[in-house]
Inverse folding.
């Protein structure tokens, strides 16, 4: 149904029409995916400095499409944010995260789980009371659930983000500042937005062994975090050399393909055990 239909679209750029149509299809498909349970919460282990002990995991969404196969978040999260569907997807993620945490608790595993939060979810899309209700229903300790936010998310509405953050922290949830170093991240934000941990973006880790500037930057972030008594997680660690550097700089936790890719929840225990044995 492109340029046909009695010239209705005669001044319509066919390429644009196709994009608009693709977006509509994707939007409808995402709504269906929620009902069909096609979203999966993959988990990537976060490892302590020893490189042996898994302390937790980051939840990363995947879409197991019934026809197209596995779809990565960059291909649908932006549209979900634009259309507002991210709110329902986010609630699904929260529920799923609580199920995992309850399961780990039953198995006696001492692990935390972190969720990525989009701007559209703050504050109405994910009110602190809803997060608290979710962990309570599942009998999970609030300190096990971490919310990963970017400074862009916070800056969208400073006043409201501050009270959103404060309420969550008062309830015992922990907050990670994600993609640290990529925006305008500075000391003043860390003062305005109380967080527990900063996550150094993988773009600074990639060339850590070759790029003098990246090394200086990562070193500075870690030093600054330490002086503010914040923990540091480095993401995107792919080799032993990067790991050794980060260790030497005093980074607290490490995440990346060097240890494990994000895996489906059924494979998580095996991934953690293989890291412990490595
Ligand atoms: P992010 O939060 O910065 O997540 C880190 C990304 O780096 C993930 O990509 C992860 O799979 C990837 N990664 C991990 N280790 C390595 C490594 O060693 N090397 C490289 N090159 N990459 C690594 P992914 O899973 O494709 O997610 C992309 C982005 O999508 C995330 O970036 C996050 O912003 C967003 N996202 C993922 N899941 C969710 C979700 O449930 N909700 C929301 N709102 N956003 C999500
Ligand atoms: Ca993240
Ligand atoms: Ca990142
Ligand atoms: Ca991100």
């Amino acid at each position: 149904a492109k340029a046909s239909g009695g010239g209705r679209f005669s001044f319509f750029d066919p390429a644009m029409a196709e994009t608009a149509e693709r977006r509509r299809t994707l939007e409808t498909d995402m709504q269906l995916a929620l009902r069909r349970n096609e979203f999966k919460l993959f988990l990537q282990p976060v490892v302590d400095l020893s490189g042996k002990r898994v302390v937790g995991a980051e939840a990363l969404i995947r879409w197991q499409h019934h026809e197209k196969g596995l779809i990565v978040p960059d291909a649908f999260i932006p549209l979900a944010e634009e259309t507002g569907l991210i709110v329902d997807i986010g609630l699904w993620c929260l529920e799923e995260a609580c199920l995992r945490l309850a399961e780990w608790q039953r198995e006696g595993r001492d692990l935390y789980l972190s969720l990525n939060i989009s701007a559209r979810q703050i504050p109405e899309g994910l009110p602190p009371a809803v997060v608290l209700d979710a962990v309570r229903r599942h009998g999970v300790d609030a300190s096990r659930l971490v919310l990963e936010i970017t400074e862009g998310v916070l800056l969208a509405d400073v006043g409201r983000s501050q009270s959103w953050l404060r309420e969550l922290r008062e309830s015992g949830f922990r907050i990670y500042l994600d993609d640290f170093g990529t925006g305008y991240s500075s000391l003043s934000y860390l003062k305005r937005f109380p967080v527990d941990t900063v996550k150094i973006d993988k773009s600074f880790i990639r060339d850590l062994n070759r790029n003098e500037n990246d090394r200086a930057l990562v070193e500075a972030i870690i030093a600054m975090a330490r002086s503010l008594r914040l923990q540091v997680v480095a993401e995107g660690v792919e080799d032993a050399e990067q790991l050794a550097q980060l260790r030497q700089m005093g980074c607290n936790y490490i995440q990346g393909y060097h240890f494990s890719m994000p895996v489906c929840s059924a494979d998580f225990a095996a991934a953690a055990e293989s890291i412990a044995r490595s």
